[in-house]
Amino acid sequence: GAGVSQSPSNKVTEKGKDVELRCDPISGHTALYWYRQRLGQGLEFLIYFQGNSAPDKSGLPSDRFSAERTGESVSTLTIQRTQQEDSAVYLCASSLVPRGGNQPQHFGDGTRLSIL
Amino acid sequence: AQTVTQSQPEMSVQEAETVTLSCTYDTSESDYYLFWYKQPPSRQMILVIRQEAYKQQNATENRFSVNFQKAAKSFSLKISDSQLGDAAMYFCAYRTPSNNQGGKLIFGQGTELSVKP
Fold first, then answer.
1. Cis amide linkage into residue B41, ω under 30° from 0
2. Which residues are registered as beta bridge partners of A1?
3. 8 Å CB contact of A48 and B104
4. What residues have CB less than 8 Å from A37, skipping those under 6 apart?
5. pLDDT, tens digit, 9 for 90 and up, residues A52-81
């Protein structure tokens, strides 16, 4: 597709359930980022994938959060045993190889996660 | 650790007027990038403008320009001839060089801009 695609657009689930969020980056973009945006706040970095390198997981808030990426394509963010504090919009972004940091990140429309 | 601060939670501007959104940041690095993103209610983050820290010249993109003061660690966004479509949440973001933490973005809290007709 032309842009970063995320699914589902909205997800409502009960506390304690596991959820899986999907991100399909722009074709050819080797870098992929996940961010979390709580209501009325800025984006918080969660995790970063670059090619076949080990991911940078420094932003994951707890061990209930994990993410995978298959090669340079789709990524899934999994939240286990969801809590109400996990309610937020989860945004994915991708970019070309970020040499020098000049490559802009292109964002998807996000998944709005609501925990009841 | 780097931080980004936007001290104006809300701003309002009359259509066709000019408005300036403030942003300050804290870093010990000398080489980095700064961005302004726009987020309308659709949630999509749209890149408005970017600035390389090593460039002294302020970036401009049509009606959008920045005032980059490296010594003061200030990066304000000026929107000229404001249009109704400019109404959105605006985020200032700092990006580390790619060889340090993969170039992740650090965002401010955002400024909600409303445009009055």
1. no
2. none
3. yes
4. A43, A44, A88, A89, A90, A91, A110
5. 888 889 899 999 999 999 877 899 999 999
